[in-house]
Every structure is written in structure tokens, then in C-alpha cells.
Amino acid sequence: MDEIQREARWSLSLDGKIALSKDIIAGAIGRFGPDFRLAWTGAKDSTLVLWITRQVCAERGLSMPRVVTINEGDPFDEVVAFQKRLVEAWGLDLTVVANDDVLSRKPRIGDVVPVAALSEDSRAELVRTGFTGEAFPFDPESPLGNQLMKVAPLNAFLRREGVAALGTAIRWDEHPARAHEDYESPREDPPHTRIHPILHMLERDVWDITRGNDIPFCELYRQGYRSLGTKTGTMRQSDLPAWEQDLTDRCGERAGRDQEKEEAMEQLRALGYM
Asked: What whole-number distance in Å separates Cα of residue 111 and Cα of residue 265?
């Protein structure tokens, strides 16, 4: 997607942006049927995708896709509680995936994890990242932890369930590594298509649509968090609610996230991250 095309979509009205997202989602459901799933983190963007998808299904008589979320081992209690409430309120069919090999050891952030103690699958994921050490500190928000605790269990789920397409909530404006993404993006390992229905939405659009339609959102945004990741790897950026902060500062949205991971985003996405 080139700059002219992106600018044209950014200039659409909110209604126009929602309509475009609806068409993308409806097209994916029509093509992939039950083999299309939605990734949901409990954050504002993926919750918006869920809301738009529910609108599409209600308007066009389609079945709501099943949803998948990742327990990376360091979640905010508030996010977990929010997801539980919305699953009940919206009747979502949610699967929670995790790297049970690592989490069964009940590691705390910073605990040293010996590579030799891990399963063959987990060791293989470490090799994919280029890691050759004998041990590493447990941190799901680090590049290494991200691959082991997020990407690996998600990819295992996609293989196991034969998922043909996965809907995500990335946006062009949130990170340079996502600025040239297309609405449909093929992946090879495992083979599937990524569907990105809100690429054209700006951070301000997300909040205007969310608050304008009374879409539920996690209370952490009201407390000043602007982007949500792991509990340990995310900092509150302001005393103001997220939607009252300077949303024209595109570099600031993910400033509260672990910056080692942010700087490695291109590599992480090549390995299977969103």
C-alpha cells in the first residue's frame, strides 16, 4: 500500500472507515467461513474489530467468527477481567492459548529459565530467534519472550485448528513496521492469511468510534494507559484518559511499551508476530 492510497483512506469519514472495515470482514467471512478467526488482546483496537464484526454479522446474517487470545504469562488483571465480562456479554466463543511448557513452571518476571529444561518445541522456537544461550530471564515482552510466549502458542493453535485466515487489529499509524501492510497478507509458517480490517484507522478514530458507540473498553485506558501489553512491560503515560492525550503524536502511542521489543518489531513480525 503506497502513501497516496494510505492518505486517501485516512481522509475518509468515520462512517466511511467503518464501512470499509465491514466490507473487509464480510469478505473474509465469506471466503474462509469457519476457518476464519479473530485475534483479541482485550485492548482497544482488537475490541473495536470485534464490535465491527458483530455489526457485520447482525446486518448480513453471518455467523460470528470464533476468537483467540494469548495468555503470555504476565497479564493485567484488569484486562483479564474485561475479557471475561465481554465474553459473557457478547457471547463470544473464545479460545485461550499459552505456552504451557513454560507457564507450568510458574515463572516470575526475571526468573532464569534453563533452555535444557524446555520441550523440544520451545527449544526450536528459541533457535528461530537466533538464541544460542543456555538460559534466559523470563520476560514475555522481550523479543525472545515474545516469540516463545506469544508467537509460538498462536502458531501452534493455527496449525492445530487448521485456521486459514486470522483477523488482527493492527493499524498503519501505530508503528513503522506496519506502515506498508496490506489488508490481506499471506503467511507461510504456518500457511494462512492475515486479515487487517482497521489498517486505515487512526488512533483518534478508534477512540471516537469507541466512545461514540459506547463500545466497552478496559478501564486502564481511563487511568492514563495509552497502549496495553504485558503488565510488567507497560507503563502509564499520563494522568489523563487515553482519549484526552495528544493523539497527534503517533510515536507516543506505544512509548509506554517495552522499547527493546518495539525496536525489534520487523524481526518479530517476520517470525509471526501481529
From this structure: 24
